[in-house]
Amino acid sequence: MEPQPELIHRLRQRDKAALAEVFDRYSDRIYRLGLSLLRDEQAADGVVQDTFVALIENLDTFEGRSSLGTWLYRVAYNNIMGRLRRQKPQVQLEDDSTPNYPLPTNLIDWQELPEDLLSSAEAMQQVQRAIDALSPNLRVVFVLRDIEGLTTMEAATTLGISPGTAKVRLHRARLALRETLANYFQERIIE
Predict the structure, then answer these.
(1) pLDDT in tens, 102-153
(2) Contact (CB, 8 A) for 75 and 55
(3) CATH class of 110-190
(4) CA distance linking residue 37 with residue 80, whole number of Å
(5) pLDDT per residue over 28-60, tens digit each?
(6) Per CATH, the architecture of 4-87 is what?
C-alpha cells in the first residue's frame, strides 16, 4: 500500500483505483469486526457498505491525526454500536471498575498439547465459540488487537477509550478465553 498522504490525496481526487485499494485492504477486516459483534452476516455487510459510503462522503473531514485504517475502524465501530442500540436498547455494558472475573481454576500447559489437537477444526470451532461468548466490550478489544492486529493505541482510539482501559479489557478477554479453552483442552488430554 502506498504512503498515506498520497493515498488520501488520490481518494480526495475521487480516484477509483485508490478507493479499490482501500476497500481491498480494509473491507474484510471491517466485515469481521461487524460479524464478531453483530453476529449477523447481512448486518456485517451493511457495516462495510456504510463505512465506505462514509469514507466517500466524509473524507474531507479526515484530519490525519490517526491512520486511515484507525479512522475506518472508528466509523465502522460507531455504526456497529448504533445498530446494537437499535436492536437491544436494554443491553448494558459492563463497568470496568469492578473486577468480576474469577481467577483461573483450570490451569493447563499449552505447550504440552499436541499440535494436531490445537489446529483441528473442532478446536478452531471451540475457539470461535469462546470468542463469541465474551461480552461485547471484551470481544471487540480482543478482535481488534489479537485478530486484526491493531496496536493498543489504535484499538483504544477506535473504541474511544483510554489505552489503559483497552489493556484491561484485553487482559480480561484473554483470561476468560484461557479459562474456557483450558476446560475444553483438559477434557481432550484426559480422553
Answers:
(1) 445 555 554 555 555 556 677 778 888 999 999 999 999 999 999 999 999 9
(2) yes
(3) mainly alpha
(4) 7
(5) 999 999 999 998 999 999 999 999 999 999 988
(6) Orthogonal Bundle (1.10)
Instruction: Give me the pLDDT at residue 5, please.
Output: 86
Rounded average pLDDT over 59-75: 89
Rounded CA gap, 184 and 55, in Å?
A: 42
Alpha-carbon distance of 139 to 90, in angstroms, equals 19
Distance from C-alpha of 37 to C-alpha of 142, rounded to nearest angstrom: 11
Q: Where are the domains of the chain?
A: 4-87, 110-190
DSSP 88-153: -TT--PPPTTS---PPPS----GGGS-HHHHTSHHHHHHHHHHHHHS-HHHHHHHIIIIIS---HH
Rounded to 10 deg, the angle between the 163-190 and 121-133 helix axes is 140
pLDDT of 161 > 90? The answer is yes
pTM: 0.71
HSE, CB side, 13 Å, CA atoms: give it for residue 173: 24
DSSP 118-129: HTSHHHHHHHHH
